[in-house]
UniProtKB/TrEMBL annotation:
It comes from the Bacteria. This is Nickel import system permease protein NikB. Residues 95-303 form the ABC transmembrane type-1 domain. Its main location: membrane. It holds the Pfam family BPD_transp_1. Belongs to the binding-protein-dependent transport system permease family. OppBC subfamily. The chain crosses the membrane at residues 101-121, 133-160, 180-199, 225-246, 285-306. NCBIfam families: Opp2B (NF045470).
Amino acid sequence: MISLIIRRFFQLLLLLLGISFLVFMSMHFAPGDPATIIGGPNATSSDLEAIREELGLDRPVLVQYFDYLGGILQGDFGYSYQTGQAVTEAILTRFPTTVKLAASSTLVAIIIGVIAGIISARKQNSWIDVTSTTFALAGVSIPNFWLGAMLILVFAVNLQLLPVGGLNAPFYTLEGLKELILPSITLGTASAALIARMTRSSMLEVVRSDYIRTAKAKGVRKRPLIWIHALKNAMIPVVTVIGINFGTLLGGTIITEQVFAINGVGRLMIDAIAARDFPIVQGTVLLVAAVFVVVNLIVDIIYALIDPRIGY
């Protein structure tokens, strides 16, 4: 396990190095000039040149990249072109909000997906199974922005039961929990559908195993047979889906944050892309990539806890 963690750590460094290069180059070769956006419509040519020189944009791109890389090694991710705020500070201010949204959405997805998958597997080919499969297909197919808008229209505007948006209150308060409900359902629906389908297929495979038939023959009751003997082994592929989906949700909160006016990392990235704020974009992408790799490492560790037969 220790050797696995060490290998993954070096893989993480190489992955982040490659991502930093791709993002840096794609941002610098994309249409648009940060100096023009910063200077505004009334900026003269000399003003734009002065801005480029101040930001270091007049130097060769590779020189800029290696300077940026050197700053990262020292813990300096640069400063925002728009606000002058340190990138680390700007991201860390909003990152807890995004993590809170991604974690609550994952929790919603796990609760709905695992329960629906187990029930579908137990009631295979029944109307419950057909209904669950239909809802799973709908959950994958419905776009987040449409679902979010509909939930706001029904529960916030018409029924006035929940707030429209924003995650400003602490999550452990009643108001904070109310603020989390709609965006969590919006973001977690597609993941719940995937988890439900994976849980169903995994459970159907496990319940046909020899050891389950043996347990049945010994007189083990159906409830402990499903929830104790079958579920643990069926959860191994499900844990993979949950781990990957958490990383995806963390990087995919952009649309949901826009719909619900949540000041998270996704919204920060969208604003930075529109303003050609290179340091902010690069910092947010590196952060999401690092979290994604760390989550996958945690999933590998959970594998060993669920099934001790797994070795690395």
